[in-house]
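Consider the tokenized backbone below.
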């Protein structure tokens, strides 16, 4: 049985380190209909052989579950109401402007700030499983009937009433030409001159899993991302990395929580786009890839039993092979282990190795549901790329190094790396 709850809106503020420029950002507001995972729900995207099914059954202790009331949870599987994250996903892209912020140049140039990079980012990260199709049935600016200032959109604005009015106006303007029911998600790409610079305030936001959203063509616009301004820090990398705000916002549409906290990106650093979407390109955590159905159950090693177990993991950036080990410690939490190397979307990895992180399904979006363990604390990190939380950039463990959680008696040791295949051999000992 599923239960839908109307949740109060979250307000999350995010300080983003931008060199000397202090920046506040906000994102990840979710009016989620919190739902319990359904027993027997499909849990992997790949073909299931009897062997894999048996292995999959052994994964149950690793599917940590959220308690009731967590809006956007790290639990597996993701609750219902979000956009499907495998197969062909059609996004409706609407470029919106206002009388007090008229679109500067062609609307399709705004679109081109995000595409085709966003499609490619998802194709790479999902190993080809998410075929993201961005469509623009209305290639011109969609002029809103009221000036931008009239909607009262600010950092932390709740869905009601400003966003509800904005969505209703967008629907009214586009409906004659757009069949909203044909799309899986909506991106509202606002003219960048509406509202403050992203250096001052990031307004970009996603309302996801929202069953009470305004309707169009019989479907609620339940999963909608709004992108404002430009995440351009002036370092000259905007053309390569400015699109990353959109895969971040769409991550919420697929049910992923924010990993940054009120203190910034110090919990996860640059190891997931839900932690830091400014700056150099990097991929997503293996945990998120499993959650999104981009890893099959037979690519997960669930170390639920006490004792010693050796696992071999291949680099996350490469398709195929075992990718993620998980050590459940409670029904809601555990440690994840994966191999991060430079490749694919992981362009900014400066110290390859074995990344260890704590995952909690009982901690909500923006509150720190994931924490990366730093193999080299207070080192200052190995990257000098702008907008990357440097300290955690050298977090991975190298051969001969171990992570220990004294409280649980868990020890994760990197035994060796196969230079030819890139695979790492890892020992997991737990009491
Ligand atoms: Zn977010």
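A designed sequence for it:
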């Amino acid at each position: 049985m599923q239960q839908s709850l109307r949740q109060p809106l979250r307000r999350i503020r995010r300080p983003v380190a931008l060199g000397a420029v202090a920046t506040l950002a906000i994102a990840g507001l979710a009016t989620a209909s919190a739902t319990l995972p359904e027993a027997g729900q499909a849990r992997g995207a790949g073909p299931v052989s009897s062997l894999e099914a048996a292995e999959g059954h052994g994964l149950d202790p690793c599917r940590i579950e959220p308690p009731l009331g967590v809006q956007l949870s790290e639990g597996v599987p993701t609750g219902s109401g979000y956009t499907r994250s495998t197969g062909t996903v059609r996004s409706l892209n609407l470029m919106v402007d206002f009388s007090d912020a008229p679109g500067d140049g062609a609307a399709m140039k705004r679109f081109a700030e995000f595409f085709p990079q966003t499609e490619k980012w998802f194709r790479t990260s999902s190993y080809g499983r998410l075929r993201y199709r961005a469509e623009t049935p209305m290639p011109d600016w969609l002029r809103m009937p009221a000036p931008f200032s009239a909607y009262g959109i600010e950092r932390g604005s709740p869905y009601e009433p400003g966003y509800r009015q904005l969505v209703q106006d967008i629907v009214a303007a586009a409906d004659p030409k757009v069949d909203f029911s044909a799309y899986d998600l909506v991106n509202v790409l606002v003219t960048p001159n509406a509202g403050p610079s992203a250096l001052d305030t990031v307004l970009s936001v996603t309302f996801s899993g929202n069953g009470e959203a305004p309707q169009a063509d019989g479907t609620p616009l339940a999963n909608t991302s709004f992108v404002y301004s430009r995440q351009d820090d002036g370092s000259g990398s905007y053309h390569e990395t400015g699109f990353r705000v959109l895969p971040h916002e769409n991550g919420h549409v697929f049910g992923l929580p924010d990993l940054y906290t009120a203190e910034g990106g110090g919990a996860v650093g640059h190891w997931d786009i839900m932690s830091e979407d400014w700056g150099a390109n990097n991929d997503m955590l293996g945990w998120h890839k499993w959650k999104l159905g981009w890893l099959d159950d037979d690519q997960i090693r669930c170390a639920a039993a006490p004792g010693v177990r050796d696992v071999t993991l291949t680099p996350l950036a490469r398709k195929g092979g075992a990718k993620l080990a998980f050590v459940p410690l409670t029904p809601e939490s555990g440690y994840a282990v994966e191999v991060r190397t430079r490749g694919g979307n992981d362009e900014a990895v400066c110290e390859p190795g074995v990344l260890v992180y704590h995952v909690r399904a009982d901690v909500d979006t923006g509150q720190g549901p994931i924490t990366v363990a730093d193999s080299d604390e207070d080192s200052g990190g190995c990257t000098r790329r702008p907008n990357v939380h440097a300290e955690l950039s050298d977090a991975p463990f190298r051969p001969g190094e171990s992570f220990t959680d004294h409280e649980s008696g868990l020890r994760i040791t990197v035994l060796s790396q196969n230079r030819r295949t890139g695979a790492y051999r890892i020992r997991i000992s737990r009491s």
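Residues 27-28, 248, 252, 258 surround zinc ion (CB under 6 Å).
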